[in-house]
Amino acid sequence: MYQACAQVQHATVPATRAAVHCSASCRHAGACEATRGGDDNLLEMRGVVERVGPFLEGDRLVQPEAPHRAAFAVLSGLAMSVGGGRVLAFHLPGELFALDIARSQTHGASVVAIGKTWFCRFPRAATDALCEHNEDIARHLRTLRRRERGKTPHAEGAAIERVRAFLADLLERRRRIEGPSPFVPLPMSRDDIGSYLGMSSATVTRMLAKLRAEGVLAIRADGVDVLDEASLLH
User: Fold this and answer.
1) What is the pLDDT of residue 1?
2) 227 Cβ partners below 8 Å, 6+ apart?
């Protein structure tokens, strides 16, 4: 059943940082992907969660080639997956990731904290046990695994279109968690954004300045406010 349960496993986190912590009172309970926002058929996932952290800027939750023993979701803060010399993905609160693994049963990328970050850890053994008797959970995790496998960095097209797509994607994902808001937090460095988009940090800065000049967004110290969503999604 472990294979059917999307191979939910990850590298071990120090036990001193782990404690069971999950309930409907969580700030992100209504948007958490592990339970599809509180689906009654998936609520058993809350019973296996471990809260781990805090991790500070640049701390690694897992290392490449470490055994996969759990999946993760960001509880607060932001994280990124880094592998093959580039940023592969950014992870927002409530988003479940590290579900898809290689045949080697090891992790192919680092998971790195961006600023102060806490994580929810879903241990492999406990999640396997849930999948043994709950087909809804098994099916849900298979769906998330397929989605994760299909994700690729925004590394094609003109630089300005890549930046537009990146911001539009973050805006949509954040709204699923925080509700309607024009704000897109960008706590990651311009270098990290450039790595994800396949361009230099200087190009990222120029493209953001161009969008600001066009009235599409306003740049803040901690992110951007989207002023013209239609133009961003164009």
Assistant:
1) 33
2) 182, 215, 216, 217, 218
